[in-house]
Amino acid sequence: MTAVDSLLLGLATFAVVCASPGPAILTVVQTAMARGLRPALMLALGLSLALGVWGLLAAAGFGVVLAAAPSALLLLKILGGGYLLWLAFASGRAAASDEPVRARAAAGFRAGLVLNLSNPKAVFAWTATIAVGTPAAAPGLAWLLVPLATILAVAINGGYALVFSRRAMRRAYDRTRRWIDGMAAALFGLAGLALIRDGLIGAVRRA
Fold first, then answer.
1. What is this entry's stated membrane topology (predicted)?
2. Which alpha helices (H) appear in the chain, and where do they start and end?
3. For the stretch 97-112, what's the b/e string if a residue is b when 16 or more beta carbons lie within 10 angstroms of its beta carbon?
4. Cβ atoms of residues 30 and 181 within 8 Å
5. I need a surface site. Which of 16, 20, 96, 207 has the fewest CB within 10 A?
């Protein structure tokens, strides 16, 4: 396999992981339907740049360092889980409101940065992506893979923002917003509890 083949395989692996439904994609979809294209695009940009930061850290070997520092990993997982629980609360409050609530805790560039920077699992996903996309004979290729994958993340997240900010999608949201926000609250809550649980279980096993 050539270096180019490895790079393309790494990008394909990253694209599948990035496009798969999860808290980040959920926030983009919810924000696009509730607030429109611009806030969703800013959120998508923040999410993508945060992924790029984790990618650079993974390329520098931070994943190994983090795995060897259980206290730091536990703290990051608790903080990340806590932020997801806050998103669950915000979505639940919106679902319970009689009036449409356009303001979202997960709207804007800063919210995107916080959401993905508070997810330490990203560095381990990056470590796997870099392992797939970087041949042993050319380890420096990781420094090309990361920026290309970050650009790909912008395209993927921005694509979700574009699709779900369409007028038809926003009208559908207006008709069913309580159901959508309620489901979002449940998913954010489950994801947050799972992240905290994962951190606590890991800490107990290492104790």
1. Multi-pass membrane protein
2. 3-19, 23-35, 37-59, 62-67, 70-96, 109-117, 121-133, 142-164, 167-206
3. eeeebeebbbbbbebb
4. yes
5. 207
Six-digit token string for 3: 């270096």
Mean pLDDT of 46-66: 84
- Please give the C-alpha separations between residue 124 and each of 26, 96, 99, in angstroms, as whole numbers: 21, 37, 41
Integer angstrom CA distances of residue 199 from 18, 50, 75, 118: 22, 21, 8, 13
Which conformational region is residue 134 in: left (phi greater than 0), alpha (psi within -120 to 50 degrees), or beta?
A: beta
- CB count within 10 Å of CB 81 equals 23
More confident residue, 117 or 128: 117
Residue 44's closest CA among 188, 152, 194? 152
Selected residue with higher pLDDT from 10 and 3: 10
Task: Write the CA distances from 129 to 8, 15, 34, 48, 152, integer angstroms.
Answer: 11, 10, 33, 15, 13
Q: How confident is the model at residue 103 (pLDDT cuts 50, 70, 90)?
A: very low
Residues 91 and 181 sit within 8 Å (Cβ to Cβ) = yes
Using alpha carbons, select from 38, 63, 13, 7 the residue that is nearest to residue 161.
38
